[in-house]
Amino acid sequence: MQYPEPIAQLIDSYMKLPGIGQKSATRLAFFTIDMQEDDVTAFSKALVAAKKDLHFCSICGNITETDPCVICADKTRDQSHVLVVEQAKDIMVMEKMKEYHGLYHVLHGVMSPIEGKGPEDLNISSLINRLQQNPTIKEVIIATNATPEGEATAMYLSRLIKPAGIKVTRLAHGLSVGSDIEYADEMTLFKAVEGRTEM
Amino acid sequence: MQYPEPIAQLIDSYMKLPGIGQKSATRLAFFTIDMQEDDVTAFSKALVAAKKDLHFCSICGNITETDPCVICADKTRDQSHVLVVEQAKDIMVMEKMKEYHGLYHVLHGVMSPIEGKGPEDLNISSLINRLQQNPTIKEVIIATNATPEGEATAMYLSRLIKPAGIKVTRLAHGLSVGSDIEYADEMTLFKAVEGRTEM
């Protein structure tokens, strides 16, 4: 005996999400059947809307409803700094900090030889264009993740941008605030010692 | 800065699912944006269809597209046994075993004083009706879970049905096949000793 078709379809759809296997998908599908009709309708509409109404900002690559995005359109922001991130969601994390008021640029990934991803697969050429057309940009802050791929991409960008006379910086790596040295990994400790600051 | 409205909506919807908090919901929402358009459309339709096209079988309470459900409609099945489960998905688990060929009855929950759920909130009266109207039913197998609530519900049903001269049985509890005695909990071991069988 098989699940009725509508359940089977829904289980299949849930299984396409990351980290959700057959068992979780089945649980979610049965949960959906017990949900309020309004909530399910809203969920269904939100899925389509997220796909249809969202686009990439033509300037920075952020995910947005309007083009340019609210950050690029906001002329009160500091136009001299561009912070380069891997993913659009990283912008939200930065904005939550409330201490950075410059612009952003989203790479949509990092260079990864294993996945066959080179610089041409990333949103890099538009960054270079942007730097050439906007002499107001004085500093590019590279905020790719501290993974081998993120580091390699940061290095690549630095070599590409520096010759144009633009300052290139990288986010500091070291111990997390509130963390215990005892549990820090060696690479993080090494970065913390290397980047030590005078008191 | 806030997420664009379509993302915020989608995060809200994902957060209504069990076991998914703000961070997972955000991750799933951004994943959805990167999904194939066809998959998202199929997902959206599956959600609505699961809510709209599925109903409870008027006989057994199973989730079904047709009424009665395929199991109740199948006259080749053993009409003398009714297996009582908590949830419709438990029927699937039983059917996968392929050794039970009787009928089912879904309670849609268990009695739980903490949640204020009494016998009248469960699909019990239709079970009693069914037993009264079908003298072919000779045995009711109670397959509620081995939780305090499941045990109490089993006991309640047993007292309700037995006086009508119908045999009432309960699934055996004991050690899982392939499990190690060393790691068994005391209640399971007690049930295993209590229910020991002659070799």
Automatic annotation (TrEMBL), chains A, B:
CDD domains: TOPRIM_recR. SUPFAM superfamilies: Recombination protein RecR. Residues 80-176 form the Toprim domain. Pfam families: RecR_C, RecR_HhH, RecR_ZnF, Toprim_4. Keywords: DNA damage, DNA recombination, DNA repair, Metal-binding, Zinc, Zinc-finger. A zinc finger (C4-type) spans 57-72. InterPro entries: DNA_Rcmb_RecR (IPR000093), Rcmb_RecR (IPR023627), Rcmb_RecR_Znf (IPR015967), TOPRIM_dom (IPR006171), TOPRIM_RecR (IPR034137). It comes from the Bacteria. The keyword Isomerase does not apply. SMART domains: TOPRIM. PROSITE patterns: RECR, TOPRIM. Belongs to the RecR family. May play a role in DNA repair. It seems to be involved in an RecBC-independent recombinational process of DNA repair. It may act with RecF and RecO. This is Recombination protein RecR. It comes from Levilactobacillus tongjiangensis.
